[in-house]
Amino acid sequence: MKVFPALASNPLLEVKELTCERDDRILFSGLSFSVNAGETIQIEGSNGSGKTSLLRILCGISNHFDGELFWQGQPIETVREEFLASTLYVGHQPGVKLTLTPEENLRWYQALEGLNDFHAVDRALEKVGLAGYEDVPCHTLSAGQQRRVALARLHMTRAILWILDEPFVAIDKKGVAEQESLIAAHVNKGGSVVVTTHQLLTLPHQVRRISLDKNELRGRKSA
Amino acid sequence: MPNSDSGDSRLKPRGIFLVALQREMLLAYRRRSDIVNPLAFFLIVATLFPLGVSPDPKFLAQVSPGVIWVAALLATLLSMDGLFRSDYDDGSLEQMLLSPRPFVLTVLAKVGSHWLLTGLPLALLSPLLGVMLFLPVEGTWALVISLLLGTPTLSLIGAIGAGLTVGLRKGGVLISLLVLPLYIPVLIFGAATVQAGVLGMPVGGYLALLGAILVLGLTLSPFAITAAVKISVSN
Question: How many C-alpha atoms does A131 have within 13 Å on its Cβ side?
């Protein structure tokens, strides 16, 4: 079942000769890879190897880098709006307001994406196991539940490329399995996922791994 | 469409400005004590000033326009640091930046709500301070109107400083240094409006100047604020 329109031969996102330097320390240099439609890429690396920096560059927040980024074959600066509308980033701090309820948080996420669908919010909350918590402020929820509020976005979004930074932190085993099946479904529809996690992903399809550790800088393929 | 089996139930998206404004109001309502802070400061200054300097009505009538304006300015500055702080800390700010909706409107909604919760109450409260500081009655209207025109400018300019310093651990002092020089014209014309009102002179010219500064701020500062926030977030 391909839901996203078949895209031209261009990869979704292409990274060419990416170099990132932080505090006079080169995190990675000459990094080139592309994200194709229907592909899952896991970014690996030890702590401080630059995984988060890379994801922040990929999603367009950070511009502290040398190199080029292409969205569907075009330089990313020229198609920024289209790129933003097609990308979803969930970072370490996912922007969940603790004084707002899960429902209000999701409504805001929808507004940011230009959506306005009350039923989708209810459905998303139900799917991440937060049904019944719609009206309690998020600060009364546990860390895992707060994380689930952020991940509920994945059930509502229309973005084709998901960029997830340690999405499974504080999530229980059952929740991880649910998220994995959600990722699998998204990839089945032709979407792409770039994810960093220290956990082993169990997905039905192939996961491409890219390591940022110094001795094995270039992306390598493995099952 | 992915993850949505009811494409028909999709409603028309509402304008991001109004949604953001509504969200800011809701957030402020949930943290009511933060709103009271600048207003309390405003009132405390007006209460302590006569005790510290002189309770003489004649003297107070002379200085009250300036004192009230300075107090309003400092109260605004005091609340400025928090404008982007919590959104920066919890990642909301980067999500706003990554939204395909115009970031400038989201930012303007934040500044607008800041004014609605700080500048507007200050202006509405100012007649009370006028009475406490023996401001001649003739100056009251000039005071309220000058604050209504001046405080939005203070919010807009302050937001540039708040945007620039939000990424720093301790931006509090720096924001004052950055923003205060730009506040001075507003202060001068604001206080002069009230002086003119007290003396029974026409205030139209001063108000026009305050209005012109406001228009300048409204048209130019949104770009400066957006750029400032982008620099802070991308670091």
Answer: 8
> Cα distance from A19 to chain B (closest Cα, Å)?
16
Please list, residue by residue across B140-177, b when 16 or more beta carbons sit within 10 angstroms of its beta carbon and e when fewer do.
bebbbbbbbbbbbbbbbbbbbbbbbbbbeeebeeebbe
| Range list of H helices, A171-211 | 173-188
What pTM value is reported for the model?
Answer: 0.88
CB contact residues (below 8 A), chain B span 120-179, against chain A: none
What are the pLDDT digits (tens) for A80-110?
989 999 999 998 888 899 999 999 999 999 9
CA distance B185 to B182: 7
Quote ipTM for the complex: 0.87
* Torsion A196-A198-A204-A208 (CA) sign: positive
Alpha-carbon dihedral sign for residues B83, B125, B208, B67: negative
Rg of chain B on CA atoms, in Å: 20
DSSP three-state, residue A7? coil
Token pair 């000769």: residue: A17
> Chain A closest CA to B109's CA: distance in Å?
13
Residues in chain B with CB shorter than 8 Å from the CB of A137 are 30
CB < 8 Å to B93, chain A: 95
The whole-angstrom distance between B219's CA and the closest CA on chain A is 23
